[in-house]
Amino acid sequence: MNVSTESREEEPPVLLKRHGETQLIILNRPSKRNALDIPLRNALADAVVQCRDDDTVKAVVITGNGDTFCAGGDLAALTEERRSNFKNRERIKRLHLWCRELINLEKPVIAGHSIAGEELSSIGSRHPEKVSGLIYLDAAYSYAFYDPDNALFASAVAQGIVRRDLQLLRDTTPSRARQLRAELQQTLPVLGRGLKADQEMTAGQKDPPPRPARLRVLVATAIDSNFRPYKTIAAPILVLAAVPQRCEEDCDSATAKAGAAAVEKQAQFVVASNPGLRLVRLPHADHFVFRSNQADVIREMNAFMDSLK
Question: Which of 3, 133, 143, 153 could make an S-S bridge to 236, C-beta 3.0–4.6 Å?
Answer without folding.
Answer: 133
